[in-house]
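[User] I wish I could look at a protein chain and see how it folds. I have put the entry right below:
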Amino acid sequence: MNKELIEALNVLEKENNISKDILLEAIENSLLTACKNHFGKADNVKVNINRETGDFSVYAEKEVVETVEDSMLQISLAEAKMMNARYDLGDIVHVQINSKEFGRIATQNAKNVILQKIREEERKALFNDWYCKEKDVVTGIVQRYVNRNVCIDLGKIDAILSESEQVKGEVFRPTERIKLYVLEVKDTNKGPRITVSRTHPDLVKRLFESEVVEVRDGTVEIKAIAREAGSRTKIAVCSNDPNVDPVGACVGLNGARVNAIVSELRGEKIDIINWDDNPAFLIENALSPAKVILVAADEEEREAQVIVPDYQLSLAIGKEGQNARLAARLTGYKIDIKSETQARESGLLDDLEMGYEEGFEGYTDGDFMGGQEAGYESEGAEAEGMDAEYADGAEDAPEYQE
């Protein structure tokens, strides 16, 4: 029986990640509880369990006295002499207790103590496992819809994908495998409660870390990310290695890497741009695929004036203002976009050109002063066909830039 006990504990330790020592300690406590229920007290009861063989002994420490007043704590000198002639008054005698004598209620209580300890340790081990996965991406299996929430099987535990964390328009089928971002792991009396999301911007970041080796090892760094879940995401990347093109690394050969992420996000468009410490250049890149004539950025006020060609105005603003809105979130600047005609009529263009000529910081010029349309050659704009034909709407823009 003792060998079977050790084998059972080894199985529990392997499958439920519960230490065998903790389980043996729980058995010791259960035997103490049974003694207390059987004898009324157990302060002087000791339990020893061999961790290797499973053999155990239960005994009570009793003081040798002339007259016994409490049979649970004391033993007469005559009884002690019968056990060992060397015992004398005041000595402590270890008296063996036969656990088989315990009643049904005491045995049941001991069983409950063991089961309760196992459940507590299972919850603790499960919480520790999932706490390490907080702010990370996991794969779950769709089980069923509960009202408008989705029940997700994560292996040893279930999670609920609430309606507020679902991408609008996404519909899941039972047994479908999906990627989820773990927002929070809370410890409760009923076990860990895991909050997951499909809308969090860091879901895209974690997907790039898993798909792009350069991002995972730190060669390419994701500096900023702005997302409207289910529609479009903009990410700004930079390289810590001058020989590595950050945008090209994220896009992959023939777009293989970014397409894998787009597929996981059910067709959500992803714009990948180069990060720049100069806010004007960063804003120009962020408004991609629109071409920019001039950007004037005020770092103190966190505001920027942007002038674009007339035929690029709708593309810069984007459908329902999405492109400009995401660019503002990505850069942290309030961006005011005007067409070239509007800027000339208001005199704004002349003022900004004057500031550019005087060499003020925070300016970038894409067309004037003999400059190139900065930033687009390196991002492969022409290879992706980003020209005037997209001026009618941001929805026609490519999903990513190489």
